[in-house]
Amino acid sequence: IYALRCPISNEIRYIGKTHADPEVRLKQHIAKAVKSPTACSRNVDIAALDAAGLAPSIEVVGIGIGRVFQ
Q1: How buried is residue 69: exposed, middle or buried, by Cβ count under 10 Å (0-12/13-18/19+)?
Q2: Which of 5, 8, 10, 45 has the maximum number of C-beta atoms within 10 A of its C-beta?
């Protein structure tokens, strides 16, 4: 489980789950946001940051196996 944080407000803007390396997942989010900036609110936020030369930070907030998370 990971959180994407706004670098301006430090606010958590998105919570997600991945099996990928967190930095790889962040790059995937940024690429999707640049390609489809209005597809969802997450993409709107990330695309706006990207236009300003910024990017969200990613923070692991939980780990687990299957449906069991800590």
Answers
A1: exposed
A2: 45
